[in-house]
Amino acid sequence: MAKKFKFLYVRVYCQVNDETCSGESCAVKNNGIEDYKQEQDMEIEALEAILMDDFKEIHSSESGLNTSNRCFQITLCPQDDELDESTNPPVRLALIFSHTEKYPDEPPLLSVKSLKGIPTADLKVLKEKLEQEAAENLGMAMVYTLVTSAKEWLSERFSEDAGVEDAEENEAAKDEIIVPHGEPVTVDSFLAWRERFEAELALERAKLMPDSALTAPKEKKLSGRQWFESGRASSKGSAPIAEGSDEEEEDIDFDDDDFEDLPEIPIDFLNFAKQAEVFDWMVDIRRRIHENPELGYEEFETSKLIREELDKMGIPYRYPVAVTGVLGYIGSGKPPFVAIRADMDALSLQEMVEWDHKSKNPGKMHACGHDAHTAMLLGAARILQEHRNLVKGTIVLVFQPAEEGGGGAKKMIEAGALENVEAIFGIHSSSFLPVGEVASRSGPLLAGSDFFEAVISGKGGHAAIPQHSVDPILSASNVIVSLQHLVSREADPLDSQVLTVAKFQGGGAFNVIPDSVTIGGTFRAFSRESLVKLKQRIEEVIVGQAAVQRCNATVTFESKDRPFFPPTVNDGGLHKLFQRVAGDMLGTAGVNYMQPLMGSEDFSFYQEIIPGYFFFLGMKDETLEQPVMPHSPYFRIDEGGLPFGAALHASLVVRNTETHEPGGGAEAKDKGVVPSLRPITNFPGLVARYSKRYLELDSLEEGNSWEYLRINGSIPSSGVVISYHKLKKLSFLNCPSWEKWEDTTPEEEGSATMSIMPCLRVLSINRCMLTELPYRLLRKASSLQHLMVTCSFHLSECYEDRRVLAGDHCPALHM
C-alpha cells in the first residue's frame, strides 16, 4: 500500500513541476535531490496538488507541536465508497505535521485533533499508530502514507461503531414482546411493559451519557439560532416572558452539527491554562498585584503591569480609560464584539494573613479577589491570542478600576468601553466553592443597592429639663423602628428586600440633648421597581415620623462615596451558553445553580445597556477549617482556580462569537419593563456614547397629539432608547409647529407634573444622519411605579428602520 501511494505521489509531483516521470528511474523517487529543504518544499507542493482544500498551513501556536517550523493541517474523513461529497461524515480528523531538520530521513512531528466525533482515547491510539508507521516508512511520500493510513483507520473505526449500533438494535428487536392487537391490558402485562420500557429508556440514556465529560457525545437538538428563528416565526407578535414570571423557563436545544467542534474548546483551553509555564505566570501576576494593592482610581502600578503583559503578547489596547482602566482588543476588529471584564481595585483593610506575598501597602489589601480576577483575564488574553484563529470577530478585554464603591463600571461605559459590544461576561472568585466548580443563575443574581442619610434636627438642651427641648434622639429612634415596617409589612414576601440602618450619630455628653442626630443605612432589592418604591417610602417615613416628634428631617440618597448599584440580572440566553460551556469543561456536577444574593456588583451597569452574564468561580482554600468571607483581613483563596477562570473567560467569548447572530439569542430581562419591550443591541456604540439603555418597541399605533407610552418601572438616570421597528409612516396629528406646541396635556388624578427639556435625537439608519430636534418629556407618576412619557411630533417619512433616542441627563428621571 505504501509503495503504491509513494509512486503516485512522485508522479503527481513530477506533473506539478512539469517533469517527466519514468517510473523506477525517476530521479525524485530515487532521492536524486540531496537538499532536505528542497525535498520538503517539493512534498508541500505535491500535497497541495493532491489534497487541495483539505490541506492548509497553520501557525505553530495552533499546532500543539513544540516547534517554530512551518506547520500544516490535513482534514481527513473516513475512506468509504458509500460517502459522496455531499454526505456529512460522522467523524472528521485533523492530521497536523511539521518537518524536522532532516526530514525525510527522520519522521516528522505529528499531532492529531478531533474535528468531529472522535474520543480522546482513540486519538491517542491513532497518534501512536501513525508515529510507528512514520518510523517504518522513512523517505519521500511519508506524509501521504500516513494520510492513507489515517483514512483507513477512520473507516474501520466508523464501521465498528455502526456494527455495534446495529447489533444493539437487532438484540432489542429480538427481546421485544409484541402484545397482539385487541388483547386486554392486565396489571401483569402493564408491569411487564413498564419494565421493558424502563430498560430501553436506560439503554438510550446510557448511549447519551458519557463515561467522561471529555468524550461526551451530544444530543441531536435544535441549534440556538434555529430555535430563535423558528420561535420568532411561529410566535410573531407574541411578547417574550419576563424573568421572574410564574411560567417555567424552557430549555433551548442545540444541534451538534452547528457545534461539532465546540465542546472541545473549553477542555483545550483549560489544558493550555494548566500548563506549568502558563499557570506559574498567572500565579506570579496575581501575587505581584496582591503585594501592591491600590484603591479605586489609584491602580496605576496595576494598570502598568497589565499594559506590559499585553505588550508582550502583542495585544493592542486603549489607555487611560476612566483614569486607570485599560481596554484590550483581540481579533479582526469587526463584529461581533464580545467583552470580558475584571476589576482591579483593592480595599481599605490591613492584611492579617502572614505569608510571603503579604500586602506591602499599609491599610490596603486585596480582600475580594480582584487580584485573581485581573490575573485570570490576562490568562484568558493569552489563551485567546494563542488561539486567535478561533476568534470570530473581536474580543474586548475590560480591565476596570474602582468596583468597590467608586462606580468604575459607569465611568468605563461613559468612556466608551462598550462601543460596539453586544455581550459581556464577568467572574467573581468564591472562597466557599471548591476549585473546579462554578455557580450562577438566570435572571436576578445580585441585588441592587442604594444608600440614604438623614439629618433629624430638634432643639438641644439640658437632659434634666427635656420639656424645654425637642429631642432628636427619641425622634430618630422612632424613625428606625418605623423603617423596619417597610419590608415586613409593605413589601411582597416573595420579593426579597432588605433595609438596614447602620449609622447613628448624635450627642457628645451624658447630660446634654443634642440639636441633631444623623442616621444612615442601605436598602436593597432585586428590581428597580422595588428600589424606587423603597426610596420614596424611606423619605416619607423619615420626614413624617420626625414631624410627629416636632423635629425636621432632611434625607439624601446616593453620593460620590455611596453610589447606587442596579440589580445584577443575568441574561437568559447567555445562561444557556454558560451552562453548556461550563458543563463541557467541568461536567454537570461542577455547575451549580445558586439562589440570589443581597450583595451588589457594579457589573450591573454593563447589564443595564447590553446582555451580560456574571458568575462565581470556586477558589476555596481547603487548608482552612472554615472559609473566610470576602472583605475580611484574613481573606484567602486557592490559586489552583486561576486556570479555570482564564479558560472559562476565553471559552465563553469564543463560543459566543461562534454561535453569534446579531440581535438574537438574548432573552428579555426583568428590569421592570413591560413584556412588549425587549433589549436590543443593534447600536451599542450609540448607546454607549450617551450611556443609554436600549429598548425595542414592537409596534406603535398612530393616535392623537398626546400618545402615552407607559413604561413600568424606572428608567436609568441618563434616559431610554425606544425603537420604532420597521414602521413605514409615523405621524402624530394636531402639531402644526414646534414653536406653537405647548404643554396642554390634561392632568391625571393624583399625578405630579415635571417639565424637562432634553433633546430628541432621531437616527436615520438608511442615510446615516443624526438630527437633533427639541421636544418635551412630561409627567412622572406620583407612585414612582411607572412613568408617563408624553411626546408630540410629526415625521413625514420613516425609513425602513428608525430609532428614537430620548433624553440626555434628566434629573426628574434620576432614580
UniProtKB/TrEMBL annotation:
<dbReference type="GO" id="GO:0005783">
    <property type="term" value="C:endoplasmic reticulum"/>
</dbReference>
<comment type="similarity">
    <text>Belongs to the peptidase M20 family.</text>
</comment>
<dbReference type="Pfam" id="PF05773">
    <property type="entry name" value="RWD"/>
</dbReference>
<feature type="domain" description="RWD">
    <location>
        <begin position="42"/>
        <end position="157"/>
    </location>
</feature>
<keyword id="KW-0378">Hydrolase</keyword>
<dbReference type="InterPro" id="IPR017439">
    <property type="entry name" value="Amidohydrolase"/>
</dbReference>
<dbReference type="InterPro" id="IPR002933">
    <property type="entry name" value="Peptidase_M20"/>
</dbReference>
<dbReference type="InterPro" id="IPR006575">
    <property type="entry name" value="RWD_dom"/>
</dbReference>
<dbReference type="InterPro" id="IPR044757">
    <property type="entry name" value="ILR1-like_Hyd"/>
</dbReference>
<dbReference type="Pfam" id="PF07687">
    <property type="entry name" value="M20_dimer"/>
</dbReference>
<feature type="compositionally biased region" description="Acidic residues">
    <location>
        <begin position="244"/>
        <end position="257"/>
    </location>
</feature>
<dbReference type="InterPro" id="IPR036264">
    <property type="entry name" value="Bact_exopeptidase_dim_dom"/>
</dbReference>
<dbReference type="InterPro" id="IPR016135">
    <property type="entry name" value="UBQ-conjugating_enzyme/RWD"/>
</dbReference>
<feature type="region of interest" description="Disordered">
    <location>
        <begin position="227"/>
        <end position="257"/>
    </location>
</feature>
<dbReference type="Pfam" id="PF01546">
    <property type="entry name" value="Peptidase_M20"/>
</dbReference>
<keyword id="KW-0464">Manganese</keyword>
<protein>
    <submittedName>
        <fullName>IAA-amino acid hydrolase ILR1-like 4</fullName>
    </submittedName>
</protein>
<dbReference type="InterPro" id="IPR011650">
    <property type="entry name" value="Peptidase_M20_dimer"/>
</dbReference>
<dbReference type="GO" id="GO:0010179">
    <property type="term" value="F:IAA-Ala conjugate hydrolase activity"/>
</dbReference>
<dbReference type="GO" id="GO:0009850">
    <property type="term" value="P:auxin metabolic process"/>
</dbReference>
<keyword id="KW-0732">Signal</keyword>
